[in-house]
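Supplementary Text 2. Reproducibility record for the structural model of the 600-residue chain.

All settings were left at their defaults, and a single model was retained for analysis rather than an ensemble. We include the record here because the model underlies the residue-level annotations in Supplementary Table 4.
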Amino acid sequence: MRQDAKTDWDARIARRSDEEREFCFPDLDPPKQVTAVGGAGQVTIDWSPVDGAAGYLILRGAGEHGPLQPVDHHSGDILSIPGPPYVDTTCTPGTPYRYAVVSVPEVTVLDGRPSSTVGAVPLVADGTVPRVDVSVDVVAEGTELATPWVPMVGSERLSQLLCTDRTGGHEIGAELEDALRRMHDELGVRTVRAHAIFHDDTHVIAGDSYDFTVVDAIYDKLLGIGLRPVVELGFMPRELASDPSRTVFEYGAIISPPASYDAWYDLVHALVQHLVDRYGLDEVLTWDFEVWNEANLEVFWSGTKAEWLQLYDVSAAAVKAVDQRLAVGGPSSAAAGWVDDLLTHAKQFGTPVDFVSTHTYGSPPLDVRASLERHGYGDARILWTEWGVTPTHFNPINDSVFAGVFLLRGMRSAAGRIDALSYWVASDHFEELGRPPRFLHGGFGLQTVGGLPKPRYHALTLLSRLGPVELPVTVAGDGGGSLVEAWASRDRDRVAVLLWNLTLDQTKADGAPELTRTVQLQIPGVDPSWQATATALAIGVGDIADAAAGLGDWPTDEELAELRERSGLVSTPLEWNGSAVELTLPMPSAVLVELLPRRG
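Retained model, structure tokens:
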């Protein structure tokens, strides 16, 4: 290891005791075969993956002696990424840098040994647009295309399905139901995960008994759409709370531990038994029961970690007492935290964990499979039950094209290694910090109030048009495989190739001309008589924020209809020579190229 790398991290290592590191986490080797290659406006860092790593942290120092610090792509959440390569666009063109990579066994452990450093210089743009070559093997047998967006989407608490209040003139319950129906009907989403099934507005406790009338109305509506719930067991009913004054969100969800864990057991058991009695065991066996939400953040859990682990034990026991085959899991944590804590605890006490769930924002999800295998839970499913471009409410990036292309990158990263990557959330009818103050307000929703698709919804539409067979792709050139990515597929009589250009660097969300690339897409083996079409997502194309510029806080119905037309996806004919096509991809942007027989 270079001495400068070691010196930078000695202080961080000292902050964790040797006993804690040895007990919880393996001492991972640093990555080998680290390379850094400068291109126009970027440096691409690559390395060989390390067994047992959940992710990697990229370190950078300026010049020969500048201190190594984590590269910050300004996501507002964790900086670790799941695997190579990584494109750094936060650098200054023409400046020499040194890079190193740290293997991360768990998201809170950042004191690993850095790799040897390697140098690179991001190039100053010279007026030419760099080229990336993409080649698709259309005659390959291919593999089944993984679809991590299909299993699940997030939603505002589902009691809002019953709400007749209006936001901006739009009825909340009816529009939330319509938004969820579109997720199912248009994108094939199968389940919905939401908070607060035990919130005060569901009235589940009635004196000395339970009343699940409101829960029934909620789940009846959901099942009527064709969706199933992921039942998040929380928050705490007022009648059971040890401290009902501890709340979160505008609607006052109670975050305290129960005064009696026996009473919590009885409630969970009663709910699960009631669901089985009402909907049938075969149906409820397809549901997941998730214990609480982000208890590793004090804003969501006023108790200790030990108290939450007790809550998990009691909840799992209550679920399994109805039927051992019912699925229960957690920790439903923020930023991939407490995964190892839960699995260590469960292994010690024999508590069941059928799936591991966690959340992150601003980066592709980490590879927590390493933690599961380390603790002997390698067969458990991995559900990222919240994920998105930012953890921040009312952030304009939520309405941007950048966010849509970010969704593509994350889903491609998750494919084949994660069972579900649930975007948070389906609709801007969402009120954790208050109801929407205007039509476009940087809301988390994939769809606006009024039901219009944002670029992230468009991105899911593009993904849904990929075929069932994934085809091999090679990508080369300036930023090929790091800045520019491709996902290719085949149907019986169609080839679809999804291309995009994106950096994780959110300071460039509004575009960066130096990162524009010309893509030469080669598709040899396709019948040259087939026709080609292109469906683009770019700033000004499928871009609701651009299309809505100049409108008032709440557009009229007529304005919304016009806006839907101006901000929709449009497929156009694409000229190609029978084996290749050239495209220009600004950053951020995406394009779906489809080849199919000519009609007539």
